[in-house]
Design brief:
Pfam families: UPF0223. It is built from four helices and two strands. With 90 residues, the protein is mainly alpha-helical. The protein has a single domain, classed as BH2638-like (Annexin V, domain 1), CATH 1.10.220. A two-stranded antiparallel sheet has the order 1-2. The longest helix has 19 residues. The two termini are 18 Å apart.
Length: 90
């Protein structure tokens, strides 16, 4: 990994930064080896608690995709289309 995660250190607490990084990491895992749909959606729910604004979500996820090549949007869309207990593999 030779890129950085887009995070907001000025407004987010240490715990919130950890939770956002966890979400980005799970999106990476979905592309690299697969990840539990349920765990990913839990991480996304927590991400949305920290980043409730749709425009801020688009900005952060857009930066993440530009840096990593991994799409949060497509990953979450795939996860929502799967049944409980299935694995997300992009």
């Amino acid at each position: 990994m030779s890129y950085t995660y887009p995070i907001d250190e000025t407004y987010w607490s240490k715990e919130e930064i950890i939770d956002v990084v966890n979400f980005y990491s799970m999106v990476e895992q979905a592309y690299e080896k697969g990840v539990s749909r349920d765990d990913l959606l839990i991480a996304y729910t927590r991400f949305k608690q920290i980043v409730p604004s749709k425009s801020e979500e688009k900005t952060l996820c857009g930066q993440f995709e530009k840096e990593s090549g991994y799409s949060c949007y497509r990953t979450i869309k795939q996860a929502k289309s799967l049944k409980k207990g299935e694995k997300v593999k992009m």
